[in-house]
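User: I'm new to structure prediction. If I give you an amino acid sequence, what do you actually give back? Let's try with this one:
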Amino acid sequence: MRDRDEAPAHFDVLVVGAGLSGISAAWHLQTRCPDRSYAVLEAREAMGGTWDLFRYPGIRSDSDMYTLGYRFRPWRDPKAIADGPAIRSYIEDTAREFGITPKIRFQHRVVRAEWSSSTARWTVLVEAGPEARPLRLTCGFLYACSGYYRYDRGYMPEWPEMERFQGRLVYPQHWPEDLDYRDKRVVVIGSGATAITLVPAMLEGEGAALHVTMLQRSPTYVVRQPGQDRIANALRRVFGAKVAYVLSRWKNVVRQMFYYNLARRRPDLMKRIIRNGVRVALGEDYPVDTHFAPRYDPWDERLCIAPDGDFFYAIRSGRASVVTDQVESFTETGVQLASGEHLDADIVVAATGLRVELLSGMTLTVDGRPVALSETLSYKGMMYSDIPNLASAFGYTNASWTLKCDLVAEHVCRLLNHMARAGLVQVTPRRSDPSMVEEPALDLTSGYIQRALPSLPSQGSKRPWRLHQNYVMDLLALRFGRVDEPALEFR
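Assistant: Good question. You get back a string of structure tokens that encode the predicted 3D arrangement of the chain. For your 491 residues, that looks like this:
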């Protein structure tokens, strides 16, 4: 254990989290700021973040790997919608290829960070190792790349009489290794990406379930998307991996923006397009409007993707079904619904969403004053008002997470280099326009977002405090825009 009188180890930059965005941050720092020392602090025993934590059947991304992958390292697998193990391997291979792995300190959980303006340093308090021994580190700049939800616990509604259920109740975030669902009746509660993934995955192979029912409170949008990008694969054969990756990345960025803007400007048209796609997949006799025609507009919540239509094929096979109803209570043998119907189940999977938690739950103080993120304003979606030398990676809600995180990492490096050239040691976003109106940072109506809004920073009604959820606008602002904004106070 470190002696309390010994000076803590110091780094120019500390990166928190070794997932997709943390490895991107590390690559950008050592490539664009080679004279800066850095370390990556990872709370878990392995890198990969989400893609190492989640181990439920079929775990995959909803985003294509040409946009979810790194700008600096092409995705070469023909499968565009990749599964969790493939994404985890991609992250690990990237870290190994660029010499990032030795910079990662595993089992280092950040619990507190204290800023001192007199020293222009963060003192970071860490629980290290399996015994969670206390450790102090210092840094000039703190860069949080730890995602947006709690790793140790998801959201679990308190349904009546849950204790009566005699089967197994599991949560995808902590999938039991010994769970045997062969020839079992499974009820998956939820209708998000996890549920849409689990339903077909639990019906595959020799250990397949007997029947899987997805129970949802209200209809949801599900869109079929090819698992492989044929155009991208053809481009790779013609131009090679690097050129094809750039072309495919931009092709998919433009496609994402087109459909998102279409959904926002012509929601009724987008509804018809999605509904017709489901009707083609499930047949004219299927009650599409009952289960797949939500009251909300497309992209009020994220759209769920069914790669190669696997979710729809599972339903058409008769081995999977969708029920739209409310949970009244649990029984010894399943779930009692508000309609009076009873769903028999040997296993219930609660795919009921996440608990949003920024900065991995660490507490912050600035010159001895506790800081609440909910009282701050988000600057360019990467920094927070009145908090010096702190940035965080937060991706898009309407496109691939990594697109924004790569831009943020690039901008952080530009900012650090500007400060070094000018002999500056502290940068703080300051709100100085009294006419600017505060607005919610995220406009999704998803339950996990709505539950978290009171604890999240706000955004402003004007640049640079406004979030655009638009890759091209952010590209111009973060890659080519000025770093010495009037909204930043330098010392």
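You can read the tokens as a compact description of the fold. Here is one thing that stands out. Confidence is low (pLDDT under 50) at residues 1-5.
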